[in-house]
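Continuing from the previous page...

OK, I double-checked the sequence for DUF7673 domain-containing protein against my notes and this is the correct one:
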Amino acid sequence: MSEPVIQALDRLFDLAASDTGQARRAANFLLAWWNAQDNGGFDLADLFGVDHAVAADMAVVFIYLGGHHGAIYPDQLGYEDKIIALVHQWRLHETVD
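Thanks. Re-ran it with the corrected sequence; updated structure tokens here:
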């Protein structure tokens, strides 16, 4: 995995761990990659609600995933703890309400 992909993922995970509208959109993007069936898909209209730099990071990840031979998920790239934390932050509370 190239340095630009690592940097984009690190920025997206950091943003998603915060508590803003952009954070929710970054989390939706990452969680859809992890498991869209359980976590909801990514609405492309969410791109309209993020800064250009965030959208560019999403594009870098999307291009990386599209160019990778076979499926690859965040846990395989060393982001298991971070993706699980996002599930707890953004999804688990939705099932308890």
